[in-house]
Specification:
Belongs to the MBF1 family. Keywords: DNA-binding, Transcription, Transcription regulation. It comes from Gnomoniopsis smithogilvyi. By secondary structure, the chain is mainly alpha-helical. Helix content is 39%, strand content 0%.
């Protein structure tokens, strides 16, 4: 047995460990790193985990925070509101606001905001209104108000 030399495979294969970035979890670990004088940086992760595409809401909020101007939220507009009100009253039989809201699976208050033109556009509600009233409420200025489907006559 003395003829055999012992061979250890892979003991020297790994070099010394280089310093690398570490993720600090929790406020206590962050405070400890700052006390010891380590370089600490904080970043907002927009795409987390295995998400194919990150949510852009954080980026939009950051842009709003950095912009000193007050940005008014988008609304459906008065012309769309008047169009909804006119089409609702032109229907046979006339639909009340409550009946149309029930048909579109929403509340009368929200429908009132759409008729006033002050509501923020919700594609789901606009689609339901388009189907119920058979009129286009989205798109370019020349498309809004045209029938959604042509009559078969």
């Amino acid at each position: 047995m003395s003829d055999w030399d012992t061979v250890t495979i892979g003991s020297k294969a790994r070099a010394g460990q280089a310093s690398r970035e570490t993720v600090v979890r929790g406020k206590g670990a962050l405070n400890a790193a700052q006390r010891s004088g380590l370089i600490v940086g904080q970043e907002k992760k927009f795409a987390v985990g295995n998400a194919a595409k990150g949510n852009t809401e954080g980026q939009r909020q950051k842009k709003l925070d950095e912009n000193p101007d007050i940005i008014k939220p988008k609304t459906v507009g008065v012309e769309v509101g008047k169009l909804i009100m006119n089409k609702r009253q032109e229907m046979e039989p006339k639909l009340s606001r409550d009946q149309l809201a029930k048909k579109c699976n929403t509340t009368a208050n929200i429908l009132g905001q759409y008729e006033n033109g002050t509501a923020q556009p919700d594609q789901k509600i606009l689609d339901a209104l388009e189907r119920a009233l058979n009129v286009r409420l989205r798109g370019s200025k020349d498309v809004i108000g045209t029938p959604r489907f042509k009559s078969k006559k």
